[in-house]
């Protein structure tokens, strides 16, 4: 299953508001304009579920912004059920109510019929992931793909930790890697990129343990146990906010300070910890910027829904104490 990583819950904890400028739907070729003129300005938003606060907040942001741009919004809630998601989407696309669709697919492989239905109706659709996850080899008519570059994120995370170890620990340190859980989207690529980048940036660093993390409280307990077995542990590289914050909490409880901590997530507490010097660097996916480009792209695609949609990448930003 392809998802926008569990760190969505952290990265989108604050209210998310779209700030995109509405594209001009009157442009494009004659065939595209004729098709677009028949499409309602109604956006169907189908996230994985509305249960996670992050996704609920995202849906509220869409509902708050779209009307100001002359769009209506239909929000669906498949509640992590791929069959329910395809049924809901099929109903609204087949009925002619949808003017565009934005889908965080529960199971990309189940979306084939929906993508064909949207194309046949001339309804532009944006889905998370890369074309190959949906059985395609490149850009497709009326479909925009929006994906997370896990290689780039992992490389930046490892490079930042290596930089800290070189600057503050003379290039040598014991490292704990708090990773994401098995089955998390992009995990294999992210882990490899992070560990390879760390080795390149700080060859003298040694990863003494890899600890899968999803829950902060458990992470603090588990990292505390690791610290007992490795009292000279000085660095933590974390694939999510829970691991980074849990490690800081564990170190504080043990009466010590971790010299180098890097994080992939970037929630408000993490960013404050960067300012306070507790975390060296945080690499964060910029979901608000991604929402801007996603909505803007769908609006523009209405002008010519039969043209190949673009392939978008979720922006990333690294924050350090000095930035």
The CATH superfamily of the largest domain is known as: Response regulator
Instruction: Report the principal-axis shape.
Output: elongated
Low-pLDDT windows of residues: 1-36
**Spatial strand order of the main sheet:** 2-1-3-4-5-11
> What is the name of the CATH class of the largest domain?
Alpha Beta
Estimated helix fraction:
40-55%
* Rg computed from alpha carbons, rounded to a whole number of angstroms: 22 Å
Strand content: 15-25%
Number of helices: 11
Gist of the model:
With 323 residues, the chain is an alpha/beta fold. Helix content is 41%, strand content 19%. It is elongated, with a radius of gyration of 22 Å.
Overview of this structure, please?
- This protein is of the alpha/beta class and 323 residues long.
- It folds into 2 domains: 8-149 and 286-314, Response regulator (Rossmann fold, 3-Layer(aba) Sandwich), CATH 3.40.50; 150-285, Response regulator (Rossmann fold, 3-Layer(aba) Sandwich), CATH 3.40.50.2300.
- The protein is 41% helix and 19% strand.
- It contains 11 helices and 12 strands.
- It has helices spanning 8-11, 30-37, 53-65, 82-94, 112-121, 150-168, 187-201, 216-229, 241-253, 268-275, 287-301; strands spanning 42-46, 72-75, 100-103, 125-128, 143-147, 172-179, 204-212, 235-238, 260-264, 281-285, 311-313, 316-320.
- A 6-stranded parallel sheet has the order 2-1-3-4-5-11, with helices on both faces. The chain has a 6-stranded mixed sheet with strand order 7-6-8-9-10-12, with helices on both faces.
- Strand 8, helix 9 and strand 9 form a beta-alpha-beta unit.
- The model is unreliable at 1-36 (pLDDT under 50).
């Amino acid at each position: 299953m392809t998802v926008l990583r569990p760190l969505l819950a952290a990265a989108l904890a604050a209210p998310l508001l779209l700030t995109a400028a509405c594209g001009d739907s009157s442009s494009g070729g004659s065939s595209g304009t004729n098709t677009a003129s028949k499409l309602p300005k109604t956006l169907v938003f189908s996230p994985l579920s509305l249960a996670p606060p992050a996704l609920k907040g995202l849906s509220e942001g869409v509902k708050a912004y779209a009307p100001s741009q002359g769009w209506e919004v239909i929000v669906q809630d498949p509640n992590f059920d791929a069959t329910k998601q395809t049924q809901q989407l099929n109903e609204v696309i087949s009925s002619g109510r949808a003017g565009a669709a934005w889908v965080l697919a529960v199971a990309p492989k189940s979306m084939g019929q929906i993508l064909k239905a949207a194309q046949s109706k001339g309804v532009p659709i944006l889905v998370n992931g890369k074309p190959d996850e949906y059985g395609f080899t490149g850009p497709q008519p009326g479909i925009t793909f929006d994906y997370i570059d896990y290689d780039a994120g992992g490389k930046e995370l490892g490079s930042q930790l290596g930089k800290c170890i070189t600057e503050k620990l003379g290039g040598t340190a014991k490292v704990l890697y708090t990773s994401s859980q098995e089955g998390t989207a992009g995990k294999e690529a992210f882990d490899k990129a992070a560990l390879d980048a760390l080795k390149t940036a700080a060859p003298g660093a040694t990863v003494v343990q890899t600890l899968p993390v999803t829950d902060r409280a458990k992470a603090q307990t588990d990292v505390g146990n690791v610290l007992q077995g490795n009292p000279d542990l000085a660095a933590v590289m974390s694939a999510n906010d829970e691991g980074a914050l849990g490690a800081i909490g564990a170190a504080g409880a043990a009466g010590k300070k971790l010299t180098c901590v890097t994080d992939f997530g970037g929630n408000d507490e993490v960013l404050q910890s960067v300012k306070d010097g507790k975390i060296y660097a945080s690499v964060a996916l910029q979901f608000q910027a991604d929402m801007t480009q996603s909505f803007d792209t769908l609006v523009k695609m209405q002008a010519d829904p039969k043209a190949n949609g673009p392939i978008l990448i979720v922006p990333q930003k690294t924050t350090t104490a000095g930035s």
